[in-house]
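We modelled the chain as a single entity of 194 amino acids. Its sequence is:
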Amino acid sequence: MSPNTKRAILGLEEAGLAYERVAVDLMTGEHRGASYKALNPTARVPTLVDGDFVLWESNAILEYVAALAPERRLGGESARERGEIARWMYMNSAHLSPNMARVFAHTIRLPEAQRNPKLVEESRAEIARCLIALEQRLAGREWLAADRLTIADLSVAPTLGAAAMLQVDLSSAPNVVAWMARIEARPSWSAAHR
């Protein structure tokens, strides 16, 4: 279910790179075991192993796979495109994704007695702020950062892929809804959700 893992898979698929998916059982705590923590000391998913190079953090993985396949044009090709890509990836990692995670934790994952409705309310307000920015950016545009799909789109889309489950209403953001539909129609989205 990890949107972070889905983000990395989207990048690998869109870059056209061969890879092997190795399941890590989060429910049994496999990610906290010594062998996994030897690869990723944060005990989080995903982790990319490319020969003797080990990389964790899904946005870093997106940057790496974009650099490995420059012909796919997933990364920025000018200073302005690189800035736009960074803007949306950082907005996602600093604001949208953490607030979606808080809503998940305090509406689904945590036992009822540990849930904090005030935190959910505050997180939903932050999500709404992010949606306003996304909606404005996508007005008259197909993609977030450039005239094509980039790692900015691949970074943000998995976060919003959980909107329905978390009862985050996207109906006030029709440009975002149309953008999500374009991404969800791509073969990479199906591959990331297998």
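As a brief sanity check on the tokenised model: The mean pLDDT is 96. The radius of gyration is 17 Å.
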